[in-house]
Amino acid sequence: MMETIAWKNNQVVMIDQRKLPLQETYVVCKDYRSVIRAIKQLVIRGAPAIGVAAAMGVALGALKIRTKDRHRFEARLNAICREMAAARPTAVNLAWAVKRMKRVAAEAGLQPVRPLQLRLVAEAKKLLAEDVAINRAMGRHGQRLLKDGARVLTHCNAGALATGGYGTALGVVRSAVEAGKRIEVLADETRPFLQGARLTAWELMAAGIPVTVITDNAAGYLMQQGKIDAVVVGADRIAANGDVANKIGTYMVAVLAKTHKIPFYVAAPLSTIDASVRTGKEIPIEKRDDQEVTHFRGKRTVPNGVRAQNPAFDVTPHRYVSAIITENGIITPPYRANLRRILTADKAGR
Q1: Which one from 216, 236, 243, 314 is the annotated catalytic residue?
Q2: For the whole model, what pTM was predicted?
Q3: Architecture of the domain whose range is 5-136
């Protein structure tokens, strides 16, 4: 299992996911703005992973604040948090992580600046460790849904690269394999950034798990042929009613799965559930640069003057979701009541 992101020598080091699978290189962020750039430019991506990156970016920014005055420190820290929270709008884990870092500062009372800076660094490291543990717990719950010999379709990358380590959707696959099950993965290539073809395939090859890459528009054909037994995807935000925002193309896969009576599972930590959002219609959808669609590796692939649309995410209505896999168990319909129940129980247990 590769190291997606790490705190080393008061710097944030992350594997450059834009270069995979051809090059395994790392980006070193020495200040919080370089973390923001890395998030925006997809050096690091995946909701849990950018949550970890945001926490580390805030900690890095806090270390660079040169004042002993607590009020000036907090003012500057709040400005850093605002910039970090705006890096990408759809994945709720980023905003959740920033709020958690702000809460640490608020709860520190009148603690001097230097101890508070170290406390923020410790909290960012803790968030990373928690993410890996959460993913493993999620995998243990989710693997029960996969039968021995299952052929599992994934969309985008929801593995170790999209998290602090181990993975959400791929964590379920890893856990099933560790339980002795024979699992084969079919990975949608996931246009236009090819997270499935480049990242999911690379991860699974490294783990020795059989994987086959398919074009996004081949999923329906393979379902029709009876060659897919289950779909497992991650999520960037889950609304209170169970609607799921995930990488563009997920909705299409969910509709196909429903039509072919194939279970469609979503694996996501509780931090991805946004109880303040009633339905998926309220989830902001990030629009990215047209050149991600019109160009490939810097070369134009469509005629000059042709416009493109490049939404980064879509929303799958809850009626297409068979179950939501979390670190605290598997949630089934009715989602609004059951999501509220599991969030309340989690809060009470903390």
Answers
A1: 236
A2: 0.93
A3: Up-down Bundle (1.20)
